[in-house]
Amino acid sequence: MGNGRYLIVNIIGIFVFIGVAFLFSKDKKHVDWRSVITMLVINIFLAWFLTGFSIGIDGVKAAAGAFNWMVQISYSGIGFALASWVKVKPMDFVTSSLLPILMIVPLFDILTYIGFLPWLIKWVGRGLAFITRQPKFESFFAVEMMFLGNTEALAVSSLQLKQMKAQRLVTIAMMSMSCVTASILGAYMQMMPGEYVIAAVPINIVNAIIVTIILNPVTVTPEEDTIAKLGGSAQVEENTQTTETSGSEDLAEDQVKADMKPKKEPFFSFLGDSILGAGKLVLIILANVIAFVALAKLIDSCLQLVAPWLTMENILGVIMFPFAWLLGLDVPTAFKFAQFMGTKLVTNEFVVMGKVSPVISTYAPHFKAMLTVFLTSFANLSTTGMIIGAFKGIVDRKKNDVISKNVGYMLLSGVLVSLMSAGIVGLFSW
Question: Record's InterPro entries (predicted)?
Answer without folding.
Answer: C_nuclsd_transpt, CNT_C_dom, CNT_N_dom
